[in-house]
Write a structure and sequence with these properties.
Length: about 170
């Protein structure tokens, strides 16, 4: 990497948006076939910044135990083309959590939608899919509207400067 390409001064969101642009170019060239990206880890990091607490290592039931003890599952997607299947969340293989934070990013990692639903809402709305070995939820606007909208709070967290201390979480 040349000095002109040094990315160290870029924000987290700018780096993720650059990653998306690189993936799109690689897909166009036929080098990669999927859009796998670091979205879920970024979503968990945002949740940690917003709620405080502890990220859980490799937990199947929840991703974050918040400062007040809430067991939070974090689900996210990057919305790229506006098709309904983009809103299908990864399966809930356990419902041993109190709440779920659902975040939808656009391709620049701007938070487009963010809502918190209860475990009871997820149980009621998600459908068991044997081939997924879990409950599947398509988080359409009507589903998100049942929860608590936290988009503004997440955008505020995202706009905060990233410090070296935050990098260490």
């Amino acid at each position: 990497m040349t000095e002109a390409e040094d990315l160290s001064g870029r924000t987290v969101r700018e780096l993720l948006a650059t990653h998306e642009a690189v993936l799109a170019t690689l897909r166009t060239r036929g080098v990669v076939r999927t859009s796998d990206a670091p979205a879920s880890q970024y979503a968990e990091w945002l949740a940690l910044q917003m709620y405080g607490g502890t990220l859980e290592p490799d937990s199947k039931s929840h991703d974050l135990t918040t400062a007040d003890g809430t067991r939070l599952q974090v689900k996210c997607r990057v919305l790229r083309n506006g098709t309904p299947d983009e809103r299908q969340l990864s399966p809930f293989r356990s419902v041993d959590f109190d709440e779920v934070l659902i975040i939808f990013f656009d391709a620049t990692y701007e938070v487009q939608h963010a809502a918190v639903l209860t475990a009871e809402q997820v149980l009621r709305l998600a459908r068991w899919q044997p081939h997924e070995n879990g409950r599947v939820l398509i988080a359409r606007d009507a589903v998100l509207n049942l929860g608590t909208d936290v988009k503004k709070r997440l955008r505020k967290v995202r706009s905060e400067p990233v410090t070296e201390l935050q990098h260490q979480h």
